[in-house]
Amino acid sequence: MENFSTALAPYIQDLDSNILTFISIVVSVIGALLSLLVAILGVWFAVAQYRLKRSIKIIGSVSFTDSALYNDLYPDQIVIQNLKDKSEAIFGIHIRLGNNIYITMEDLEDSPIVIGPFETLVRNYKPLSFYGCNNYKVNINPAIQERKGCVVVLTTNKGKYVTKQRKHYWSPILDSLNNATISRAGLSFVKSFNQRKSRS
């Protein structure tokens, strides 16, 4: 029996050596894969940061309303939102209707406003008496009512920039179009409105 164990001893040592070598290779491969993953994440993060700081990405929206004192529809609010991690100077705010009708809301060439990284600006406007072009009064109410191609256009240090449309965010009124659970959200909204109205 002792002779048999002595004869197997070299084979067992060789087996242990092979297992250790295999484990060492596996650990080395896992370490290399982890290092590669960290490098890929680092490159992805650097590219993401670069994309946030290059070019311009601003979204905007405009709302129109009317006044009992004037005949023309007018833009009462413009919202612009900077989606980049850098500030942007704005030298003018305009509204484009269709292909070739522009309403200049603010000429800021002498005193531009700066929208910061990921900042949202809300510009409110009062009713206007009329629209004019080259000292002539013009009627653009039909174009406003169509809202075809209505976008906010900005004057930046890189020239003309046409903003993308702002998405519509969640609202309990939209939820009220669904089921009973949503209806409670709509009732809650009405209750809140009534409370504010009674306080005023």
TrEMBL record:
Keywords: Membrane, Transmembrane, Transmembrane helix. The chain crosses the membrane at residues 20-47. This is DUF3592 domain-containing protein. It comes from Shewanella inventionis. The lineage of its organism: Bacteria, Pseudomonadati, Pseudomonadota, Gammaproteobacteria, Alteromonadales.
